[in-house]
């Protein structure tokens, strides 16, 4: 498993005709998606003056849904194909910036954003070290007092039930393919993820996902803040090793 696998995977998804399928939400109905939008805005406490960074934006439909609730949006994704489609999605959003980028190496200067969203992103990293890099970057680009929602992280405690449900509701071939993909993602318990965030200076807590959002049965959210008193300032940008 590696980052190239997931870049290729999401590049292929981004070429699908359906916007929902192209962004990885092909099984999510419109009501669940509306709850996803509302929960993201609520947990981030978005306001019209906020500068928002959406990491792992995919084809940009969630970015588009949140753009009217923020002052300015920047969206990044590791897939150039997804980024090109996101540019089309966000073409009528004033001031929206869309480019290729990674959660472990964010180009912007320190303290550039009031809010950061990374929806279903951390699970596609390949190691605890990569998670730590991601948390460090989030702390760096958030302003003191800024907030990040790192949403939809798979919980290993729920993995067996999820795989059993897939086998019970899908054909053997489809279930096997889905379970094979799940095996390529990173499953870390909420306690481990929270501890990693705290180690790099974030105030962070794990939270359950809203019951109207399908992922609530096997995933959890992380809500993180850069403490207001945090005076650490690394202004380097785009110089990741």
Automatic annotation (TrEMBL):
Sorted alphabetically, the Gene Ontology BP terms of this entry are:
methylation
Q: Name one Pfam family in it.
A: Methyltransf_11
List each copy of the Methyltransferase type domain by range: 53-149
The yes or no answer to whether the keyword Thylakoid is present is no
Q: Which UniProt keywords apply?
A: Methyltransferase, Transferase
Return one GO MF term.
Answer: S-adenosylmethionine-dependent methyltransferase activity
InterPro entries (UniProt xref):
Methyltransf_11, SAM-dependent_MTases_sf
Top-level taxon of origin: Bacteria
Q: Does the keyword Transferase apply?
A: yes
What is the name of this protein? Methyltransferase domain-containing protein
Species of origin:
Roseospirillum parvum
Organism lineage reads as:
Bacteria, Pseudomonadati, Pseudomonadota, Alphaproteobacteria, Rhodospirillales
């Amino acid at each position: 498993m590696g980052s190239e696998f997931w870049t290729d995977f999401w590049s292929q998804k981004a070429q699908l005709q359906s916007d929902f399928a192209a962004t990885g939400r092909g099984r999510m109905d419109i009501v669940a998606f509306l709850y996803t939008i509302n929960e993201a805005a609520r947990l981030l406490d978005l306001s019209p003056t906020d500068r928002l960074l959406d990491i792992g934006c995919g084809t940009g439909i969630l970015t588009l849904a949140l753009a009217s609730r923020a002052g300015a949006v920047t969206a990044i994704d590791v897939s150039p194909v997804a980024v090109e489609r996101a540019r089309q999605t966000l073409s009528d959003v004033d001031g929206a910036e869309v480019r290729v980028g990674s959660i472990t190496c964010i180009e912007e200067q320190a303290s550039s954003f009031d809010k950061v969203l990374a929806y279903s992103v951390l699970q596609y990293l390949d190691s605890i070290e990569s998670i730590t890099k991601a948390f460090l970057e989030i702390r760096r680009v958030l302003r003191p007092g800024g907030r990040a929602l790192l949403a939809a992280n798979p919980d290993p405690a729920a993995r067996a039930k999820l795989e059993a449900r897939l086998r019970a509701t899908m054909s053997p071939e489809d279930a096997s393919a889905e379970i094979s993909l799940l095996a390529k993602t990173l499953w870390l318990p909420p306690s481990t993820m929270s501890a990693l965030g705290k180690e790099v200076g974030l105030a962070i807590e794990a939270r359950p996902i809203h019951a109207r959002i399908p992922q609530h049965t096997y995933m959890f959210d992380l809500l993180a803040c850069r403490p207001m008193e945090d005076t650490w300032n690394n202004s380097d940008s785009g110089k990741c090793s």
